[in-house]
Structure formats: structure tokens, C-alpha cells
UniProtKB/TrEMBL annotation:
Residues 199-276 form the ACT domain. The record marks T175 as: Essential for prephenate dehydratase activity. One of its GO terms (biological process) is L-phenylalanine biosynthetic process. InterPro entries: ACT-like_dom_sf, ACT_dom, Chor_mutase/pphenate_deHydtase, Preph_deHydtase, Preph_deHydtase_CS. Signal peptide: none annotated. Transmembrane segments: none annotated. One of its GO terms (cellular component) is cytoplasm. The gene is pheA. It comes from the Bacteria. Pathway: Amino-acid biosynthesis; L-phenylalanine biosynthesis; phenylpyruvate from prephenate: step 1/1. Pfam families: PDT. This is Prephenate dehydratase. GO terms for molecular function: prephenate dehydratase activity. The keyword Amino-acid biosynthesis applies.
Amino acid sequence: MKIGYLGPESSFTHTAAVNAFPSEYLVPYRSIPACIKAVEFHEVDLAIVPIENTLEGSVNTTVDYLFHQSTIPVGAEIVLPIYQQLMVSKENKERWEEVTKILSHPQALAQSQEFIRQYFPNADLEQTPSTAYAASFVSEHPQEKIAAIAPRASAEKYDLEIVKENIQDIASNHTRFWIIGKDEAHLPYLPVEREQMSIAITMPSNMPGSLYKALSAFSWREINLSKIESRPLKTSLGEYFFLIDLVVDKPLELIEFALEEIRLLGGEVKIFGKYGIHTIYGV
């Protein structure tokens, strides 16, 4: 079996992956679309991609690709606590406050805004494909006054010095990762905490109160929603689809009836998957 993930090694996605699968199964890819395409082209059996962060919300690249360009099902979800570290080369350990550029993935930079504003208000911020890539770059350029924001594992792998720990804006920072490729993905090392279903609905644009009518299909059946978010349909201004997470604590028939009611109203429904949620602790 092969499992694709957003690499390189020591990225947050890699941390989620090694807690779910044997390391010899894992294959790194440089971008989220590359991970998804690897499943589509049968290069790997499954892929692990980030879908949402506590601070920054949905990972739009994942959501939009899976909605617009893919029919790959979601088979499981992993929730990982996120701790961001500021790291520099060993040569810059004593003069880390002189850093003029900070590199990291866009999500990590956004999750550490307050820290950057306090300590490095004039530093250039450079986005990289992953946090691990940023750490690797800093390691390869030890004389430059640059730093990376990345997980602790990146400092260990690339022999960097952590000069400020846990710099994320809030302590309870978590990222959700979807395992895609099968309707159900078995993670024997991680127990299932609860079940959820993720769908996308698109309602007729000329129907007054269309979203209210769609949500009523869940409301009167007492189906709990844990998330609802709009995303552009990329057709014209004002056209959206709605990403919805449903708590699966009722008979599936009730959910199926609700989805059929939405279709009868003229809506379109795309089911990403019904899956178990697994939380990783102590990393």
C-alpha cells in the first residue's frame, strides 16, 4: 500500500500520516493538488491532505479541488494539535533577533501573526509549499539571516535551533486532515471518536430563501450540523456552494431523506464522504 501526503518529511501532514500508517507506506508530494492527482492516477492508494485549521478556517485549495475537479471519496479524518516553532540555523542561534526574513507555509504564517507583529514587524514573509520546505531552506542557507516557522520535528530533521516555542496565536490550535481514496479508511492505531458526513450543496440562484429551505431539511429532523461555509462556484459573482459537516448520530435514513428533500427543492448535493474522526494526542 502507498499513502501520499503533503511533504516533505517532518511537515504537519507527515506527522498526521506517521501516526496513522507505517512510515514505509508514505510517499511525499510537493502540493495538495499533486497529492489528490496521485490518487486519481493510481500512483498511491490513499492520500492525506489538510482540510481545515482552527485559526485560519478551511484550506481552500483542498475544498475547491475536491468539489470542482474530483470525485475521490473521503474515508477518514485525523485531527492533529498544531504547535508552531521559530527556528534558525545553529550559526544564527545567538543573533536570531536580527532575522530579516521568515519562511513558512501560508497557513503557518497566518497562525503566528501576533508573534511576528511583536518580534519581527519589519521582516519579509516568504510563503513556501510546506513548513518542512521552509526548514530545509533555512538549513541549506545557514549564513543568511532567515528563520522558519515549522513543527519541532523539522528542527530535529534539519538540525536547526528552536529559539521561540509554541508561537501560534492561540493554544488550542488544531488542523483537520482528510484521508481520501476510499469510502472507508481503517486506521488501526487510532480509535474512532465520532462519525461525521461532509457534503456540498448548491441551491438555485433565483429561489428566495433557498439556503433557509435547505437547512430546514436538517433542522426539523434534528440533524446536527457542526459546520457550514460558503465557497464561490467560480461561475459568476454571487454564486456559491455550501460546505456542510453533519454529525452522524441519527439513523442514516434521516440524512438520506433530508438530502432527497433538498434535491426536490432543486438543489444539487455532492457527498464527500461519511467517515470516522480520529484525534491524535501527545505530539
